[in-house]
Design a protein that fits this description.
With 165 residues, this protein is an alpha/beta fold. It has 4 helices and 15 strands. 33% of the residues are buried.
Length: 165
Amino acid sequence: MTINKGTSASGRTLVGSDCLLMASVHVAHDCTVGNNVIMSNLTTLGGHVNVENWAILSGGVLVHQFCNVGEHAFVGASGLVTQDVPPFILAAGTPLEYSGINSVGLKRRGFLSEKRKEIKSIYKTYFRSKNNRRENLRKIEQELIDSELAKKILNFIENSDRGII
């Protein structure tokens, strides 16, 4: 396992508490890894990557520099992350794409059925609707104006610099 120190760009590389970094994991310079993150064997983060709390990166995942992986996200084995992975989802395949919500992880962490259904509904609208994604965001915003989960998801998507998978 290697963890590189920060450069003059940010001055630090941070790894949170209770993380599991398995064999041959690489955390490049200026990365931030949240708490309770699991990075399986041969997972590599390019520089300036942000991995939020409770994310799981399966074996052989490569994360391009400046990408973000949202909280409670699960990236399947050998995934190539070149754009941001929103919170609470399962991302898999080549190219990497939305494959549903991380229902097993969310259930294990105490997310009630109604909250998991809400997350699934949000992402069904965002990823599966026939409208463009910008229109889908507005629809989610209007329909779930008081939802903390929707606000968290919308905030992540709207603040993405690299785009969403």
